[in-house]
Design a protein that fits this description.
Elements: H1 33-40, E1 48-64, E2 68-75, E3 78-85, H2 92-95, E4 103-112, E5 118-129, H3 145-150, H4 152-158, H5 160-182, E6 186-187, E7 193-194, E8 206-209, E9 214-218, H6 223-231, E10 236-244, E11 256-265, H7 269-288, E12 292-295, E13 298-301, E14 307-310, H8 311-319, H9 329-338, H10 349-360, E15 369-372, E16 394-399, E17 402-403, E18 405-409, H11 414-429, H12 440-447, E19 453-459, H13 460-468
Parallel strand pairs: 3-5, 6-10, 14-15
Antiparallel strand pairs: 1-2, 1-4, 2-3, 4-5, 7-9, 8-9, 10-11, 11-19, 12-13, 15-16, 16-17, 16-18, 18-19
Helix pairs in contact: 4-5, 5-7, 5-13, 8-10, 9-10
The structure holds one RNA strand of 75 nucleotides.
RNA sequence: GCGCCUCUAGCUCAACGGCAGAGCAACGGACUCUUAAUCCGCAGGUUGGGGGUUCGAAUCCCCCGGGGCGCACCA
């Protein structure tokens, strides 16, 4: 358990000098640990550089030997050895009493010890923070998944891969922004508090605004507001931000998650496929240096072009059954029932086909592959397919056996949109609490004219999992959602 | 929400029906070139919580709680 009561005994005794009140207000750092390794890496064993530097970080290891001591100081760039010595280091008797995890700043000459370790030979040093609690086993770290997620500040010091996962995530967002800016896309922010939840089929979180005395919903997707910006004349917009869905937590789902949503006027879903494969492969190259990945032991080559295949084609490939939305409902329902899935009597052939795809085919795809042409019945915001009746121009990119996102030629006809909303409202009334709510505000906006537009959503957390080769979404979210710790008590019921 | 697994010292783990232990950290000490330093010493526990079975429970059973995985839903 993650220590909900605080430490069971007293906190570790405080030794040595330096109450917190004596800690300085600032410390002048001249070099990061990695810079010292780069600049003075050429020193030979026993050599002294004559150059004095100041470094700061946590003391992660400490080996004392009477009148001499060696410590590993870790900062955000890496580690550097501190070498303290009687006659050279002030307050040596306090230095050797530092606790692992204490945060210090130290100044001294860059030297390489006789045994060959590049070091800062400490002349002066100052305590910057005490670690009143320990960071766990210095060799094995912290492995308890709950502690790692709940106390990420501990995990970050105990397990170096955690830092690198979060750094990769940060680089992904940076690379994505730079590529989109270069493509003429404008980054915007739209409301997170929505009067009506819309833009996706999902259950929302509800909250309340006191002054307005109105219920508001945390957005399940920014889609509708972004399309209103297109109506307003932003021809290329994107937003990178959080959405919230009141649904289960799993290794691939967090109740709050980050997406890129992007709208591109005058383009269709075919154009969007080109953008997606270039963007994802490009970001991979920018961040990890290659588009040829290995994910969970299997190769995954993101180099464009990606395979494009319709849902019907992929189902046929996987199951041997030719399926389409125009077939007899009973026949399709029988096929789905064979998979063991429950069949709801209210489902039409579109929903049945989508369910059948998910049960039989999706998990078997490795990709990258664009799965094209979804049933209209499960796509209330996508435009009818120019060729196939009952279908829409929609695709999902599937990578590593999981959908990475969702895109379509946007539905631009206000009358069609109203009809789709009415159908959603009918389902909602029939008990489907993931169905959409009719949004008059959005329909009014559509009346002003939405030009042909392609829209896209990509899961940033999922992309970060791919590029860090991690199987659990917690590994790429700094503070994943967990059940709240109970205040002031233990876990007894 | 359902099923399975799991919870022992601050951390990492033993003990699996018969005296709750080790390593690391912490605490006290030795040591002037260490690399998870080493050595000596000391301390640390309502075995997640509660109930039951038993001569005896960390261990078996039940309830509750946390976490993990799978199913369902979804990105």
């Amino acid at each position: 358990m993650a220590d909900p009561r605080g430490p069971p005994g007293p906190l570790r005794p405080q030794r040595g000098r330096s109450a917190v009140s004596e800690v300085p207000y600032r410390f002048e750092v001249t070099h990061a640990a990695s810079e010292i390794a780069q600049r003075w890496g050429g020193l030979s064993a026993g050599e002294e550089s004559g150059d004095v530097v100041s470094v700061a970080g946590r003391v992660m290891l400490l080996r004392t030997q009477g009148k001499v001591a060696f410590g590993e100081l870790r900062d955000s760039s890496g580690s550097i050895q501190l070498f303290a010595q009687a006659g050279a280091t002030e307050d040596l008797e306090d230095f050797v009493r530092l606790n692992l995890g204490d945060w210090i700043g130290a100044s001294g000459e860059v030297v390489r010890t006789r045994r060959g370790e590049l070091s800062v030979r400490v002349r002066t040093w100052t305590l910057l923070a005490r670690a009143r609690r320990s960071f766990g086993d210095k060799w094995r770290g912290v492995t308890d998944t709950e502690t790692r997620s709940r106390q990420r500040e501990v995990d970050l010091w105990a397990n170096e891969s955690t830092r690198s996962h979060l750094l990769v995530r940060s680089e992904i967002v940076r690379a994505m922004r730079e590529r989109l800016w270069a493509g003429g896309f404008v980054e915007v922010e739209t409301p997170i508090l929505h009067p009506i939840p819309g833009g996706a089929l999902a259950r929302p979180f509800v909250t309340h605004h006191n002054a307005l005395d109105a219920d508001l919903y945390l957005r399940v997707a920014p889609e509708l507001y972004l399309k209103r910006l297109v109506i307003g004349g932003f021809e290329r917009v994107f937003e990178i931000g959080r959405s919230f869905r009141n649904e289960g937590i799993s290794p691939r789902h967090n109740p709050e998650f980050t997406t890129l949503e992007l709208y591109w006027a005058y383009a269709d879903y075919l154009d969007m496929m080109g953008l997606v494969e270039e963007l994802v492969a490009g970001v991979a190259s920018d961040v990890v240096g290659t588009a040829r990945l290995t994910y969970q032991g299997r190769p995954l080559d993101l180099t464009p072009p990606w395979r494009r295949a319709t849902m019907a084609e992929l189902i046929l490939e996987q199951t041997g059954h030719a399926v389409d939305v125009g077939m007899e409902r009973d026949e399709l329902a029988a096929l789905l029932a064979e998979t063991g899935a429950a069949v709801d009597p209210s489902w039409g052939t579109g929903k049945l086909m989508a369910e059948y795809y998910e049960k039989t085919t999706e998990g078997a795809l490795w990709g990258p592959v664009f799965v094209l042409d979804y049933p209209e019945e499960v796509s209330p915001l996508a435009r009818r397919h120019r060729a196939g009746p009952g279908l829409v121009e929609r695709f999902e990119p599937v990578l590593g056996g999981r959908e990475l996102g969702n895109a379509f030629s946007e539905l631009i006809d206000p009358d069609d949109q109203r009809a789709r909303f009415v159908e959603q409202a009918r389902r909602r009334a029939a008990g489907d609490d993931e169905a959409m709510v009719l949004d008059e505000e959005y329909l009014r906006a559509m009346d002003y004219g939405l030009p042909p537009t392609a829209g896209l959503g990509i899961g940033i957390d999922r992309l970060a999992m791919l590029l860090t080769d991690t199987a659990n979404i917690r590994e790429v979210i700094a503070f994943p959602t967990l059940r709240p710790e109970r205040a002031g008590g233990d876990s007894a019921g």
